[in-house]
Fold this sequence. Notes:
The complex is a heterodimer of chains A (about 170) and B (about 220).
Chain A: H1 4-41, H2 46-101, H3 105-115, H4 120-127, H5 131-145, H6 150-162, H7 164-169
Helix pairs in contact in A: 1-2, 3-5, 4-5
Chain B: H1 21-40, H2 46-68, H3 82-93, H4 105-128, H5 134-145, H6 159-201, H7 214-218
Helix pairs in contact in B: 1-2, 2-4, 2-5, 3-4, 4-6
Amino acid sequence: MTGRTPQEARRRQTAALVAFLLVQTLAVVFFIGDVIGDLREDPQSIHFIFEALVTGALTLGVVFGALALRRTIDLLRAQEAALDVARGALSDVIEAQFAAWGLTPAERDVGLLALKGLDVAEIAEVRGAAQGTVRAQLTRIYSKAGVSGRAQFAAYFVEDLMGQGLKAQA
Amino acid sequence: MVAPLESPFSRARIAPSLWDPVIRISHWGLALVVLSNAILTEGGSTLHVLAGWIGIGLLALRLLWGIVGPQEARFSAFPPNPLAALRHLRQLAQGRPEEYGSHNPAGAMMAYALWGLLAVVIATGLVMTGGRTPMQVAADQAAVASGDWSALVKPGESGDDEDENEGWKDAAEEVHEVAANLILFLVLLHVAGVALESRAMGRNLVRPMLTGSDKDRRK
């Protein structure tokens, strides 16, 4: 699917952020241990002050890294949710339209597969039916829908997706 | 955006089909640390201390994630509630446990108990080693091995001070061992709970903690 590319990128971004976060956290823990050791020995030394500053910065880095990771995960999920909603809405529209045309259950199946872009041979294979049967079913579907063929049949639902504005101008 | 949960332990959603990476890494990382330090490494050895320090990092990361992480990772999604935990166990015994948007109440209590015990084991371990980092432990042990016993005496330790220190260390050692054994017992209970819950729900609860399944992710 074409819509997967940005999501794949975001997933990779998530993995990278997690790796950074993990390494940073482990580093912070060891640094803090070291700083506490130094604190006991000589809290006035430049070495201690410098290391304490670095550790503080690293700790802040961990917190901001975690926040960035959370934001990325939230975005990824929002995209997936939106896609799910769109999918669900489209399938609702298709179902309602098929019912309005009075398609039989078998015709609905064939119609859905045709909308997904399968050709007659593929539909026949999926449904374990003869190609002649599928061709006859498609013809009945087109006639019930009042469309000239597969292109118009598919366009019927695409047009719905594009909204009313297009219809008014046509 | 993802709809927020209306209440803790919301019944409107089911637990994620794949936990987020921080949860998964901290879960299996801590499991590895616990098992390796219980079975493989020798107490007091550099490896044992190193694994413990990695455990500090993993636990700290998970606790931070409990504040800033996504909804189901946050403490607010699975508050400690012993009564709800008991209710859940009763439902589990009857074979029809409820679904929750995050950990179920019994699982939540298990998580808090394990984290608490881990904190105790880590704290007592730090007392026993005098808070020395694994690098220092390794250096000291190398020094002792080469015959320089002075590495065992730290500056500022002498006389009564030392006796008192040893007393603390002995107490810490007792607590360290008891808490560690308690963790192992809870881990067994945890595994049994996951197995029971998976069977009662008719759904593999381990998979979301590993990689999820392609089917779940695409749906």
